[in-house]
Amino acid sequence: MDFTRQHTEIRVQTEVFTELAGADPRAPVPSCPGWTLGDLVRHIGGGHRWAAEIIRTRATGFLPDDQVRKLDGDDSRPLPLDWLVEGATELAEALRAAGPGLAVWTPLTSGGGTDFWARRFAHETVVHRADATLAAGIPFTVATEVALDAVDEWMMLDSLAQHFEYNPGKRALLGPGRTLAFAATDVDAAWFVDLTGEVIVSGRGRGAAAVTARAPLTDLLLALYRRKPFAGNGIAVSGDTALLAFWLTHIGFG
Questions:
Q1: pLDDT of residue 128 exceeding 90
Q2: What pLDDT is stored for residue 231 in this prediction?
Q3: What pLDDT is stored for residue 33 in this prediction?
Q4: Quick one: CA torsion of 204, 207, 209, 215, rounded to 10 degrees?
Q5: Residue 122 within any structural domain of the chain
Q6: What is the mean pLDDT of residues 17-22?
Q7: Which of 111, 141, 171 is the last residue of a domain?
Q8: Range of the structural domain that residue 169 is part of
Q9: Predicted local confidence at residue 253, as pLDDT
Q10: CATH classification of the domain holding 106
């Protein structure tokens, strides 16, 4: 997806949260242990507003993100869905006005600017919408092109060398013969993760791997984000399942 589609999806995905109207804000979110549905909504809305401030102010350094991390609120009232959509619209409009290629602060050592924020919050919103559907007990669906871009971004982010600086233990993933393949069964798309070198190399591609997981695209997306297990649930795993399990203990974000 291009920059315009990505920042547009921030609002589009958030508007789908209106399907939660009437859901209990106190409902636990299984994929975010310790969170209620109200906590989740406040986290998403705070994140949108925090990123919008970064874009609007053309921040070149980190801005305090208390509004992302402060989750407590009044869950005796209905979910603040209008407030949620307002924050998404604020971020989408800030990105649209700034345009692609604008240098602002991001957590990446390689920068990324407004392009990073458009893509990151499009898929942050998608995955947290999946969290919300799990809490509310309703089906989760997402457009194919959005899911593909979400997996592509996941692969790119997880292979960043800067992870080794923040978490040296992640180097334990590297070793001879350690390769993983993921193939969608409902669209023509596959990804390959190579852990045999000095860095993680991952992205689109096919190849013989030590372990392979095959599933419909949406199921792969949710499993990669650890929103559902790889074992069962329509996901077929063959090969070195111990490698897959070990890899899963060293990944995760969003």
A1: yes
A2: 84
A3: 94
A4: 60
A5: yes
A6: 90
A7: 141
A8: 161-248
A9: 60
A10: 1.20.120.450
Both 19 and 114 in one domain: the answer is yes
Angle formed by the axes of helices 113-136 and 81-98, nearest 10°: 160
Residue labelled with tokens 């111990």 = 242
Residues 110 and 236 in one domain: no
Same domain for 167 and 137, yes or no, is no
Structure tokens given for 184 = 């969608």
Q: Is residue 153 part of a domain?
A: no
Per-residue burial over 52-63, b = 16 or more CB atoms within 10 Å of its CB, e = otherwise: bbbbbeeeeeee
